[in-house]
Amino acid sequence: xxxxNQLSALALSxxxxxxxxxxxxxxxxxxxxxxxxxxxxxxxxxxxxxxxISTVWKWNPVTSAWAFYSPTLADxxxxxxxxxxxxxxxxxxxxxxxxxxxxxxxSVTLPVTQQPVVTTGTAEGIWTGSTVSGAQxxxxxxxxxxxxxxxxxxxxxxxxxxxNTSSTSTSLSGSGSSFNFLARTSSTGSYTGGYTAKGxxxxxxxxxxxxxxxxxxxxxxxxxxxxxxxxxxxWAVTGSTVAQPTNVxxxxxxxxxxxxxxxxxxxxxxxKVTPRASGKNVFNIQLTFSGNFCALGNGATVNxxxxxxxxxxxxxxxxxxSAKSDGLFYLGKTQVVSGTVAD
Length: 343
Hints:
disordered N terminus, mainly beta, 343 residues, 8-stranded antiparallel beta barrel, 4% helix, single chain, elongated, Lipocalin, disordered C terminus, 8-stranded antiparallel barrel, 53% strand
């Protein structure tokens, strides 16, 4: 291989694990280098410049053999290594020492394992559970803390809620309003609680009610407009009207349309549904109402959120007017049209 007692220059360097890239200076002739990061060094990538490097060598103590690489040879020296009984040097691993025979001075930057980014958890997600009073609750906490929810009794949705939640790694708090569809009333309150990320949640409301629930993994599926497109049959309710049967159409571009006509009375709904930038199974929804029989008024607009369950083919949408004094809740399921499911 070579006579190490005839070294004309010797540089000893050790690359330590760091959050920054490690750059080593190499001098002409022989350099003894060391590497201690957990990321592998691909020999051909780090030492593949034939104008600067003649050969790279590493001793393998397990096989008691030298491993060889040379950028001056077409195959990196693989055939030469085999002919001499050497191993072909493809990778330098943590803890390895190795020799570089340099033609000219140069610098080499070795890969470094990036340290994991430690982030505090948030209560973001869809949570489902029940209250101590027996109500079923589905709660949505968005990445920005905006919070939406619905609650039901005996399988029927009887109310909705809206608020804002702040969370640390294990605890949460917030305030908001709840809307009772049966009594046609609304109330405000605050809440505190705790959670485990993507696990369980518990919330105590200022009126004494308590909610416990679990995380819904479907929240982590990316929302797509294409998967939402279809004709839905369902029920719509506002703060001033009882539940009304309502058909809604969503096309492949996310455009929403619905129409109610009874004699001279009418209300047309148009809007748009778009996936949220968070990449979760949540849509932003905006609706505008026009006509002489719209519960929220002619020209009213609501903004809110929606979620789609691809298994049950059911959509839930909830939104509020600009004053957040009234809103719309819709629960629908894709219809079967002409023998096919319209989704």
